[in-house]
Amino acid sequence: MNIANWISVAGILVSLGIATWSAHQTKVAAQLASRPYISIYYEAIDVTFTSKYIAIKNFGKSSAIIEDIQFVKLDSDNNYSKEIKNAFLQLIGGSIAPFQKFATAIPDDYKSPITVFISYKDLKGKRYSETFILKTDMTGKFHRITYTKSSDTPVATAIKNSAASIIKNLK
User: Of 7, 43, 126, 163, which residue is most buried, by most CB within 10 angstroms?
Assistant: First the structure.
């Protein structure tokens, strides 16, 4: 074999290696794009008043089965903590579809941080786990402006402020 043949063989081997690596990267990217991504988060909805929630949502593209939820840090002195815990513990063993969300309301005076650990698996059995830290007081210093015109009735003022809040939340 002469040098030209060796160069051709080396070129073929390099091309084969690149094609194999590219196929592997495509497979990994497809798996990452189609896996479930479960998140537990604090949510505040502001529509003329603020409602506070703790939500769990699947932001992924496939269903997940929730295996475990542990409240690592939860204010045991607050009577509502048990209700928060019970609301989420009933999800264990259940499936959560893509973009499906469950939420439980929390009182305005609940200001203790919450740390939650969740483990879940996809429908093929691959397991994932995450830990989330929720600051339930992080919207406490945000200000809301309401407008009142002296010529408006209280109903008109409420409608205008509600419409402004809804538009703000839809953006």
Answer: 43
Written as one string, the DSSP assignment of the chain is: --HHHHHHHHHHHHHHHHHHHHHHHHHHHHHHHHS--EEEEEEEEESSSEEEEEEEEE-SSS-EEEEEEEEEE--TTSTHHHHHHHHHHTTTT-EE-TT-EEEEEE-TT----EEEEEEEEETT--EEEEEEEE-TTTTTT--------TTS-HHHHHHHHHHHHHHHHH-
pLDDT at 100: 95
Distance from C-alpha of 70 to C-alpha of 114, rounded to nearest angstrom: 11
Task: Please report the sign of the dihedral spanned by the C-alpha atoms of residue 20, residue 21, residue 26, residue 29.
Answer: positive
CA gap 65, 167 in Å, rounded: 35
Distance CA 162, CA 141 (A): 20
Split at pLDDT 50, 70, 90, the class of 101 is: very high
First to last CA, the chain: 68
**In the chain, where the domains are located:** 1-34, 37-140, 141-171
Name the region of 93 (left: φ>0; alpha: ψ -120 to 50; beta: rest): left
